[in-house]
């Protein structure tokens, strides 16, 4: 029988549960969008309702920010992770050309779509359009950041955007900011928390 190679994690006592590469940055981006969705789309709520929704959003965002910053500082301090090849290391944050191209395309689509909907006399569909664009852009960001969970996020938020268009055609425009705005906001915050959940490595 051949002796098994020692597991470096067992020798050093390190846990094999780690967050995915790019999780901290991805979580901050998703949580930021989520909080913004809540702030913008609760204008029709009562004062108490709006205050409660935004308060919950701020508390969740603050928790995500603390966990994400702690993770980034820990990684910078040398607590590297095991890459997919099994070697210890940490990818640099992927703020390269691909990332900025995605952001540029997203900004153009958001602006152009909102202007078009307004010119057609349906500015209330703007939030639904934003949810569709933000949702689909997470497909690309999930690939750039190497965060497959964001593909699930992309699907759910995009469906929230489509739900807003369905509400419009169903003659229920009052539900558009709730479906495409508030629900999307909480979905983004929830998935940001999920992104920071350690997985087996």
TrEMBL record:
Entry keyword Transmembrane: yes
Lineage top rank: taxon: Bacteria
Keywords: Membrane, Transmembrane, Transmembrane helix
Membrane-crossing residue ranges in chain numbering: 21-40, 52-73, 94-114, 126-145, 152-172, 178-197
Name of this protein: DUF308 domain-containing protein
Organism: Brevibacterium sediminis
Source taxonomy: Bacteria, Bacillati, Actinomycetota, Actinomycetes, Micrococcales
């Amino acid at each position: 029988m051949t002796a098994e190679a020692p597991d470096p994690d067992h020798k050093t006592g390190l846990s094999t549960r780690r967050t995915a590469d790019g999780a901290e940055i991805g979580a901050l981006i998703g949580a930021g969008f989520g909080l913004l969705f809540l702030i913008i789309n609760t204008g029709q709520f009562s004062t108490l309702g709006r205050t409660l929704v935004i308060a919950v959003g701020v508390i969740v965002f603050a928790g995500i920010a603390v966990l994400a910053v702690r993770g980034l500082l820990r990684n910078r301090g040398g607590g590297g992770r095991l890459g997919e090849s099994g070697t210890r290391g940490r990818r640099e944050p992927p703020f390269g050309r691909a990332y900025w191209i995605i952001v540029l395309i997203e900004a153009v689509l958001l602006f152009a779509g909102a202007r078009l909907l307004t010119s057609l006399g349906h500015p209330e569909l703007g939030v639904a359009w934003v949810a569709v664009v933000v949702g689909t852009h997470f497909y690309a960001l999930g690939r750039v950041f190497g965060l497959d969970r964001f593909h699930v996020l992309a699907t759910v938020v995009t469906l929230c955007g489509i739900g807003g268009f369905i509400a419009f055609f169903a003659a229920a425009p009052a539900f558009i900011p709730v479906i495409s705005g508030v629900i999307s906001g909480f979905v983004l915050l929830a998935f940001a928390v999920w992104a920071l959940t350690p997985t087996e490595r």
